[in-house]
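@channel anyone free to eyeball this complex?
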Amino acid sequence: MKISKNKTAKIAKEAKPGNSNSIWRQPLAIVGVVTIGLWVVAAIFAPWIAPYDPLSQDADKFVTPSAKHWMGTDELNRDILSRVIYGARISLPYSLLLVVLSAAIGSIIGGISGYFGGKVDAVIMRITDMFFAFPAIVLAMAVAAALGPEIRNAVIAITIVAWPVYARLVRGLILNAKQNDYVTASALLGSSSSRTLLVDLRPNLSGPVFVLAALEVGNALLLLSGLSFLGLGAQPPAAEWGSMVSMGAVNFDRWWVGLFPGLAILTAVLAFNFIGDALRDALDPRTAKALRD
Amino acid sequence: MSNSIIEVSNLSVEYTRNGKKIRAVAGVDIQLAPGEILGLVGESGCGKSTLGKTIVGILKGAEGEVLFNGKSVEKIGRGRRDPHFLNLQMIFQDPYGSLNPRRKIGEQIADGPMIAGVSKSDALKKAQSLLERVGLPANAVDRFPHQFSGGQRQRIAIARALAISPTAIIADEPISALDTSSQAAVANLLVNLVEEFNMGMIFISHDLSIVRRISDRVAVMYLGKIVETGKTEDIWNSPSHPYTKALIAAIPHADGQSFVPLDLPGDVPNPAFPPSGCRFHPRCPVAQSQCSSVEPLKVSLKDGREVSCVLQEAGTMPKAITF
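replying in thread with the prediction:
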């Protein structure tokens, strides 16, 4: 989380000079950053902020929202506000972890595919085609179900469905960048393949991959909550937004049980998407190129 | 010639377009001596760049070979380039594409020495001194390419090639993408560097007036073939091939004499369907009847130049071409 915030700050700083697209001039981006900031604070300081222990069953069953329990209680007598706050401790770090994992794996595979081309490229791209042929959630469900219901397996399942997007992006960037004379010049100077890939081509990737990753955080959170909703992710009694929503679905007449964790998912996903959109606008290749040249 | 660093013999280069093989370079012989500047001129599409790229090993020849210091040049591939050929470098036409926009100037110049095993600090020191040598401030090492003009970038690209002390440089239209004001400066820089480091340079250009100023020898290329080679002044004073004469006559003069440059009729034919016989005959103002069927042989004239035209006879002084 810390790394991600630093990176955001760095990119914002780079985009700033004379850039009307700087993410700090976009109101939605500010809304997004503030919202995620609040969730990060909630996650870090959960034990001090939450009024109750998220697992304690000392309250009454299905208490309606009141001064004592702002978001009411669930069927196991637990305070929903406290569980929503603790839920940020699962959703935020896991969705960031998911994005980092799939971006890393996808970039490496896409880089190899684009740089070496030929048969390697054809095989890798057909594999990504297969992944794109299935809806992500269905594929993730299948993998998670096969591995067994556990949050670690849900992470593996989502990484498996999420990497092809990055592979495609990076492959395209490499295909484009390797046409440049500076790549040829580097080969003439005796550079090895790996050096060309890491030193000459890699700098072209960081911006677009970072933007895609920022846009994908919300997706990852949604997939993770979805798997948990279906009982394939976080397991009870862990306070996780998706599984809390599923409890609300079972007790549909008690609206507060599902609504508040649902709102938590909504605000976090929306905020991540606002930030992602703003970063994309700020780092749009054409705009960015116009600024560089 | 045994003292040449580059020896191209009977080189042909083909590429495939729409399933058809196109011979962009069709049997070329060139020699380059140390300290010599060979100007390679011709119209767009005649295969000059293809020839240059094949000489350094970016493209693969279909026939014939290129010897660099006695060893046959191989196409650069996935693996590291054979260290024997590191002294054969290239300067590209577009100084915007030839420098990595996301890496510092210093790092890019230091690349060559670092790959060869020099420490980073030494390589950067070398980069600074090279930048000064090409007329840029040493502190440019910490800047990025976008902070420089086209002419400055070309100087940076030259510094990068110089960093591993090449003995031969192929300069592929190094000044044609530059402003007129920096063209002369970059051309002069190249000439001085060639003298200073005793390098050989093949200077590819379609700008004949620059080539005349800087080259020791000139090779004139038409549709994949060299039609005439010789000492620059000889060729200028008495072109022995009609194409050479037409090219020279087509140079505009900025002398206020309202001189109208000669217009060579037609375009370079499609290299996929080269004309029969002499490849220049459909455009040649002095074409003979046999030119459409007989391919002219290369003959050596008395003043040392080589020409492929039926009007010239081996071992004689060149006959003047008039039209």
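from a first look: Residues 80-116 of chain A form the longest helix (37 residues).
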